[in-house]
Amino acid sequence: MQIACAGGKCYLDFMAVHLQIRDLPDDLHETLRRRAALRELSLRQYTLEVLQAHCRQPTVDEWLDGLDRLTPVELSLSAAEAVCEAREADDAALMDVLGRS
To answer: What is the pLDDT of residues 21-67, one digit of tens each?
Structure first.
């Protein structure tokens, strides 16, 4: 944000922030450039999309904080018991199809 003054009045000027990445490895630059070209975007447009997509995803810490806010659920079976029951049911169904008991 900048303040511009003219004619005795001041105005707030909201400007986009410029981001410059120095010492970008050549292989990373080439990958970004190639992917931008495949999408028919400029490197700037493509990089902006990549950054926006990345920032839409929660960090691991944000995701874990969200889990902490969930209400725990009591289950009648443990996960291991549920898997065993499902496998036994699948085995029984397969034996029925094969005509074996």
So the answer is: 999 999 999 999 999 999 999 999 999 999 999 999 999 999 999 99
The H-or-E segment that residue 9 falls in is: strand 9-13
Which residues in 11-30 are b (16+ Cβ under 10 Å) and which e?
A: eeeeeeeeeeeeeeeeeeee
Q: How far is CA 11 from CA 15, 26, 70, in A?
A: 12, 42, 46
Partners of 40 in beta bridges: none
Q: Mean pLDDT, to the nearest integer, of 5-25?
A: 76
Percentages helix, strand, coil for the chain (3-state, rounded to 5) are 55, 10, 35
Compute the distance between CA of residue 29 and CA of residue 47 in angstroms, rounded to an integer.
Answer: 10
